[in-house]
């Protein structure tokens, strides 16, 4: 199987590049045709959606996996058109191109399509209500993929982090090295999910349910606040020698840490449909955290 992977330089894209290798040949594509680890890739600029059908036609893959996205949650408030083009229009164009070629499309969405008001983990068919531009653009992307007509798998992820790229774990490690005191919100709840485990689960889902089309929640087990996640990061990072000492960590309400975009108070996803349909689960979020910190430690300590 030939798999065209868009967004191959992103944190999820890099993990998928490895994990999808077990299913066939991965053909990476990036914004500028270069792989961040060195090497060449196809060019796929999602801010120019009209360029995408020709790429799909020329490469003639058996499957397209779209890990590219506009993910800057606060900046999206000031660049709504760009966010919409990359996160909504481009996935719609891809879905139509895949439908025309008779191939499937794997796409990713987010817990930020919800408004955070639930009292229990969100199910796939719960009403959406994004609080900001990023979440709204990702919701429009889901709808565009469904309407585009390709057989698709849309995986809604939550609080993604890994050993590379831009994410909360790496931000916390950096800030802890710069300051002795951090303030982190404790009234937003979700499930931190490590990219290596997401990538393995996506490969497993393609293996176990290649013909299935639909939308699934895919996240680790358990739940935490951002403050609880930061606390666990510092405890494990000190134990693994990645930090000399944990900073003082103050729990604060969201009002005390104002951001350009509002985030949901409750982002925990119910993943039972994914487990039922593909026979897989990602494991508890603390297991994924331990693996990522172990891999950072084995790489020499400093991300
Ligand atoms: N990060 C998270 O916490 C979560 C992410 N998700 C979803 O998971 C998916 C993967 O996200 P993640 O890997 O974390 O995000 P990253 O920001 O790490 O990666 C996104 C990739 O998309 C690329 N990209 C952005 N704009 C364009 C463009 N115009 N043309 C081509 N490529 C572009 C970026 O390229 P470049 O490297 O050149 O900037 C980057 O490599 C996305 O769909 C995201 O919405 C869902 C829930 C949580
Ligand atoms: C850096 C920092 C953040 N925070 C708060 C801000 C925010 O409410 C929360 C999370 O911070 P971030 O801005 O790093 O995370 P954010 O970019 O909101 O993360 C989101 O990214 C997108 C792409 C998704 O799809 C989501 O699932 C989610 O992972 O923590 C603090 O309280 N203290 C701090 O020192």
From TrEMBL:
Task: Describe the reaction catalysed, as an equation.
Answer: dTDP-beta-L-rhamnose + NADP(+) = dTDP-4-dehydro-beta-L-rhamnose + NADPH + H(+)
**Does NADP show up as a keyword for this record?**
yes
What is the free-text note on the cofactor? Binds 1 Mg(2+) ion per monomer.
Task: Spell out the molecular function terms from Gene Ontology.
Answer: dTDP-4-dehydrorhamnose reductase activity
Domain of life (superkingdom): Bacteria
- Name the keywords, alphabetized: NADP, Oxidoreductase
Gene Ontology cellular component annotations, sorted alphabetically: cytosol
Q: Which residues form the RmlD-like substrate binding domain?
A: 1-296
UniProt xrefs under Pfam families? RmlD_sub_bind
- What family does the Swiss-Prot or TrEMBL record give for this protein? Belongs to the dTDP-4-dehydrorhamnose reductase family.
For this entry, the protein name equals: dTDP-4-dehydrorhamnose reductase
- Taxonomy-wise, where does this protein's organism fall, top ranks first? Bacteria, Pseudomonadati, Pseudomonadota, Gammaproteobacteria, Lysobacterales
Which gene is the coding source of this polypeptide chain?
rfbD
């Amino acid at each position: 199987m030939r798999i065209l992977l868009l967004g191959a330089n992103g944190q999820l894209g890099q993990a998928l590049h490895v994990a999808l290798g077990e299913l066939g040949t991965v053909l990476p594509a990036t914004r500028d045709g270069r792989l961040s680890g060195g090497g060449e890739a196809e060019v796929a600029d999602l801010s120019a959606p009209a360029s995408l059908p020709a790429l799909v036609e020329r490469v003639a893959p058996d499957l397209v996996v779209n890990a590219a996205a506009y993910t800057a949650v606060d900046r999206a408030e000031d660049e709504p058109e760009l966010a919409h083009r990359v996160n909504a229009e481009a996935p719609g164009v891809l879905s139509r191109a895949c439908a025309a070629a008779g191939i499937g499309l794997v796409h990713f969405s987010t817990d930020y399509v919800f408004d955070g008001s639930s009292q229990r983990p969100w199910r796939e068919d719960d009403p959406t209500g994004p609080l900001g531009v990023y979440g709204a653009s990702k919701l429009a992307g889901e709808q565009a993929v469904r309407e585009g007509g390709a057989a698709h798998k849309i995986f809604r992820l939550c609080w993604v982090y890994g050993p590379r790229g831009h994410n909360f774990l790496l931000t916390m490690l950096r800030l802890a090295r710069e300051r002795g005191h951090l303030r982190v919100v404790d009234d937003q709840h979700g499930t931190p999910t490590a990219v290596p485990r997401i990538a393995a689960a996506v490969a497993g889902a393609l293996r176990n349910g290649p013909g299935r089309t639909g939308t699934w929640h895919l996240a680790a087990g358990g739940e935490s606040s951002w403050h609880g996640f930061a606390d666990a990061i510092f405890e494990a990072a000190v134990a693994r020698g990645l930090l000399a000492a944990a900073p003082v960590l103050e729990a604060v309400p969201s009002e005390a840490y104002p951001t350009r975009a509002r985030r949901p108070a409750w982002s925990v996803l119910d993943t039972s449909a994914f487990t039922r349909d593909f026979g897989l689960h990602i494991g508890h979020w603390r297991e994924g955290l331990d693996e990522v910190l172990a891999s950072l430690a084995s790489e020499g300590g400093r991300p």
